[in-house]
Amino acid sequence: MPEMHDHASMHGSTPHAAPEAPREPGARRRLKNHLIWPAIALFIICAITTAALGATNALTADPIAQQLALAKNEARQAALASATFEPVDLVALQVADPTGYADALGTGKRSFAEASYGKDADGGTTGLVVLVDTRGYADGLQIMVGLAADGTVSGIRILADTETPGLGKKISDDAFLKGLVGKTSANGFAVAKLATGDIVPVDAVTGATISSQAVIDAVNAVAKLSALLLKGGA
Fold it and tell me: Any residues with CB less than 8 A from the CB of 118 and at least 6 apart, and which?
């Protein structure tokens, strides 16, 4: 009987591999859902959080603004007592005399945030109160400076600062401010070790010369601004 041969062997080929099982139709969909739903959940959480923060800000914005306005008014009254206040148009002044305005500001990171004339009951000018935004050892130093009509420093109030606790924050202490308040600003002020001629020496806060200098520079700037206004620049 003739020998039987396997048909595949006779042709020198190997058996065909079994076809790959088809991928489960829902696997890709399940993977997609697995990735999408966390993203949707995160979006919803962010939206809710943003809405909550917006609502909180809306509720607190007015009270914060009112508190800031009260703090500024108290600082004006402390800097120039027994006066009503009339705003100074600083923009008009800067346009009218840009050179004088820049000279009043001096060098450094400093600006006049706002200014007001102090008025007596008869409408006469009793002085000037200016809020100065500046930098001490750190940014965020706001100083309200009051000058009487004769150029005497009538008061200083530190409204905000980020100075070093225990050092720079002592610029609010009377022990430092008394070197400025009640003194005439006609010749300017300087830290004691730098004062020459008629410049009024001021003892700096120990260990906080930079913070002290920022306050002194702010007072000098306000004195120059006052002189600019008095000469009719506004």
Answer: 76, 80, 83, 84, 85, 125, 126, 127, 128, 129, 146
Please report, as a single letter, which amino acid is at residue 44.
I
Q: What is the pLDDT of residues 34-84, one digit of tens each?
A: 667 777 878 888 888 887 777 776 666 566 667 767 778 888 888 888 779
Instruction: Show me where the domains of the chain are located.
Output: 25-78, 80-230
Report how far residue 234's alpha carbon sits from residue 228's, in angstroms, rounded to the nearest whole number. 8
pLDDT, tens digit (0-9, with 9 covering 90-100), for 1-38: 444 444 444 445 455 555 555 555 566 666 566 667 77
pTM of the model: 0.70
Identity (one letter) of the amino acid at 79?
A: A
Burial of 152 (0-12, 13-18, 19+ CB in 10 A): middle
Q: Is the separation of the CB atoms in 222 and 132 below 8 Å? A: yes
Buried b / exposed e along 201-213 (16+ C-beta atoms within 10 A): ebebbeebbbbbb
